[in-house]
């Protein structure tokens, strides 16, 4: 018997999945707040106590720790608000090229993919929430790194304005997505099969989709074959 006989089963399942996603985001974001707060606090204390005694590289590293902890705090607060049904969106001018290069540098360092390349010349500044949009872009680049082919990874980012919207396209030369799975990649708690891939919650693209909805946009898989994939992000240009 259906949980609600007046609703189609698909609608009920979608609603249940949405609630599970919100609970997951709320719990994960809440649990991260305390350690992030302590990291930021201790970094500030160390800066106050040791700033005069550190060399330039050490000082820069400590400031980077503080900056990253504060950025993560802002992001977890945004995710908590999203899970609560009232997302707090802070719109500001975002240099798309700078954001992409920063995320790329961090992920390449983590993955050790020294032969990977990024193309994104002439990218514009857009008006959006930097924390939420950055999380979306990070997920797409991370996926490209996870599902790369035997060839050196190449990711290209392009953006163009069409009417009242920006269309940001992220292409890669990875393994592509099997046609059998293309309808499922945005499903919550589903992960694209890959031998040896690290286990995860299967919420990356689902969360990206929800974040873009909060920003008034959306995401779609525009193209995928054996030569790679291309995702398209739509965001309001206003």
UniProtKB/TrEMBL annotation:
Residues 27-238 form the Histidine kinase domain. It catalyses: ATP + protein L-histidine = ADP + protein N-phospho-L-histidine. One of its GO terms (biological process) is osmosensory signaling via phosphorelay pathway. Coiled coil: none annotated. GO terms for molecular function: phosphorelay response regulator activity; phosphorelay sensor kinase activity; protein kinase activator activity. It comes from the Bacteria. It is an enzyme of class 2 (transferase). SMART domains: HATPase_c (SM00387), HisKA (SM00388). This is histidine kinase. It comes from Rhizobium aethiopicum.
